[in-house]
Each structure stands twice: as structure tokens, then as C-alpha cells.
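Milestone M4 deliverable, item 7.
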Amino acid sequence: LARLRMQRRLRAKVKGTVRLTGDHIVFRNSEVYGHMPGGNDTVVMASGNNIFITKNHIHDNGNMDLAVENDVHGVSAGNGTKQVWVLENELNRNSGDGVQVGHGHTPGATE
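Output delivered:
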């Protein structure tokens, strides 16, 4: 962990979604809430390499009262993403998984 040198740092209070695209990104000490897409989605999506997601509060996303499936996940990593650290976050009251990895994996893919 000490060898990771992060170049960009993001901090926010966001009502909606966060897309972390690129390499060497830190997303910390932020609050992300209130994303109601009407379908399946991810609140904090990581796509790239060496992405560090820490000490965030990701909550109250998606509609848990719907009779149909409404998976709004707290954190997810896109295909081909490498070295994502998800540490010391508080993920609660999201209508999907807190952290979902590998959902879009293509069988037989090398990465």
C-alpha cells in the first residue's frame, strides 16, 4: 500500500453518482447519497488502475421499496480495472450490494 502514489485527490458531497476514470485516483472523506436511477446502476464506479476509495459514506441510493429488482450498488469496478482499494467506507441503505466486483466478467477473458 505504501508504494501507491496517488496523483489526483477528490473530495465531495454528491447527490447522485461518481465516476472515477483513470489511473492513480484517491476518492476519500466524501458523502454520496440520493441516487434514484429507476433501474440498476452503481453509485461509485471505478474504471482504471490504482484507485483508492476510502473513508466515504455512501448511503440511501436506489428505491428499496419497489416490488421489482432495483440493484443500485454502492461501489463497483469496471471490466479491466486493476488494483482498486475499498477501505474504511460506510455503505448503508443502498438497494443493491455495498461492493460488487466481477458482475460484467466475460468468460474466457484473460483480464
